[in-house]
Structure to design on (516 residues):
């Protein structure tokens, strides 16, 4: 019987069978079972000794504690296992061997996702019966229990897909030998302190709000009061109906996971390619921009929230768009080898613009400009209808122009660095951008060269990409406009320099061709 199951598993997903055989050793299985049972026993003893509380309240405390522990334990341990495994496979050279398999990439990656964290799956699975029993005995809403494990599975699939993407990137992009454990611990720390709390914040505020969990939890704690806050997306409340809250959450997770898997399949077969294709970048930017702006669209009856959103939302969206395009720049700019290949096989001059828009190995400046247009298609109307543009249209225009110019400058700089014959271009690019974004503002702040102390310094701040100030003063507006003009002058100079560099590379390619 066992051999039949093994054969079926091997026929369905050989990679999963390989992972299970490598990890399901008697010692490892015993350790996972003992760890899970000991943890459950300690929790049970801790709550059973609370004689001053009724029995049902002890069950409720146990159920709620396990509700919090399971995602933290599964997400953190599973993500660590996945990232560490991919880096170890790269170090041993077996990852390239796996890439040669005739099996589809998605089957191999799915086998990794299901097989690598098999021990955390086992340990968490053993705790599910106790969680369900405690929840039922304490009157926990049954629909919440069903939703809890549905969202746990969906969140696990999304987060582990992200972990695999991170593992593939860290194993192929300037991660030195011997740093595998550091890389895995870094992502596990991100999961523990950022991603897992966000998972709970979102689900408690949106997904589980209509299911009565907050009301059930509040009855055991006199200091906790259930709050009915309406979370809106483009004016539609998404946390008042269980169908709508679950549909929205699962829909967003499905789209985000699908976009991640497009990048996974792309990187798995060709680790030296760009992280995403140009058309994928357009889809990702449009999806994320619409998702974020939807939460900052206010309805006419929410006056106080509208005043808050106008001021704070403008800065938040600026920072979000800034960070989003920075990530896209690093993910979209091709390296020197890809540029040389594009120069070797590019189309005739009349087809170059199409290459710049769609071909992945072509320079990324035009593609970044298109992504900025996609962002501004939503950001600019919001800025003038909801943001500060309705009160200060000049300030809104300066913000849009400065954002566009500084991100195109960053694109030109990163693309120039990637086109050079240097080691670790990603390190140089990220280090250079971080230095440019952080050091000058700190120096200016220490020297008190700020728009509040020295209005003429607005030119420098705008040039650096920080176009914020009290634009009711004419001197600030004129100084900001000078900074924007300086930005576009620098951009033109950088584009001209990169074009000369491309011509030199193209000439070297044409001279080397006859010698082959």
């Amino acid at each position: 019987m066992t051999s039949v199951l093994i054969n079926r598993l091997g026929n369905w997903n050989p990679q999963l069978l390989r992972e299970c055989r490598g990890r399901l050793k008697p010692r490892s299985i015993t350790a996972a079972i003992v760890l899970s049972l000991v943890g459950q026993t300690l929790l049970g003893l801790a709550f059973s000794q609370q004689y001053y509380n009724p029995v049902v309240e002890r069950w409720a405390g146990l159920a709620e504690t396990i509700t919090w522990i399971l995602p933290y334990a599964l997400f953190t341990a599973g993500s660590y296992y996945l990232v560490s495994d991919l880096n170890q496979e790269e170090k041993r050279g077996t990852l390239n061997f796996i890439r040669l398999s005739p099996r589809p990439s998605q089957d191999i990656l799915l086998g990794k996702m299901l097989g690598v964290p098999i021990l955390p799956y086992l340990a968490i699975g053993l705790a599910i019966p106790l969680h369900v029993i405690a929840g039922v005995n304490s009157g926990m809403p049954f629909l919440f229990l069903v939703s809890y494990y549905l969202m746990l599975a969906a969140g696990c699939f999304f987060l582990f897909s992200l972990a695999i993407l991170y593992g593939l990137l860290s194993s192929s992009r300037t991660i030195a030998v011997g740093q595998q454990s550091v890389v895995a611990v870094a992502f596990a720390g991100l999961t523990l302190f950022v991603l897992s709390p966000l998972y709970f914040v979102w689900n408690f505020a949106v997904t589980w709000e209509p299911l009565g969990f907050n009301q059930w939890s509040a009855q055991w704690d006199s200091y906790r009061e259930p709050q009915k806050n309406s979370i809106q997306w483009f004016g539609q409340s998404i946390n008042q109906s269980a169908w709508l809250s679950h549909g929205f959450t699962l829909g967003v997770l499905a789209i985000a996971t699908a976009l991640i898997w497009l990048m996974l399949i792309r990187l798995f077969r060709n680790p030296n390619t760009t992280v995403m294709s140009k058309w994928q970048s357009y889809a990702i930017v449009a999806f994320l921009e619409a998702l974020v702006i939807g939460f900052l669209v206010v309805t006419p009856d929410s006056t106080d929230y509208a005043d808050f959103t106008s001021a704070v939302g403008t800065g938040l969206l600026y920072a979000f768009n800034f960070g989003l395009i920075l990530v896209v720049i690093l993910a979209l700019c091709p390296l020197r080898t890809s540029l040389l290949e594009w120069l070797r096989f590019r189309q005739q001059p009349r087809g170059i613009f199409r290459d710049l828009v769609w071909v992945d190995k072509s320079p990324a400046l035009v593609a970044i400009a298109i992504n900025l247009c996609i962002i501004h298609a939503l950001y600019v109307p919001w800025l003038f209808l909801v943001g500060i543009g309705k009160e200060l249209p000049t300030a809104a225009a300066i913000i849009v122009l400065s954002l566009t110019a500084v991100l195109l400058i960053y694109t030109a700089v990163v693309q120039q660095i990637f086109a050079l014959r240097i080691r670790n271009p990603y390190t140089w690019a990220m280090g250079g951008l971080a230095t440019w974004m952080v050091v000058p503002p700190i120096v200016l702040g220490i020297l008190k060269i700020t728009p509040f102390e020295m209005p003429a310094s607005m030119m420098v701040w705008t040039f650096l990409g920080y176009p914020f100030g009290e634009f009711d003063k004419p001197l600030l507006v004129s100084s900001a406009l000078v900074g924007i003009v300086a930005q576009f002058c620098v951009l033109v100079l950088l584009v001209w320099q990169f074009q000369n560099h491309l011509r030199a590379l193209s000439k070297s390619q044409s001279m080397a061709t006859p010698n082959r």
About this structure: Residues 277-515 form one domain.
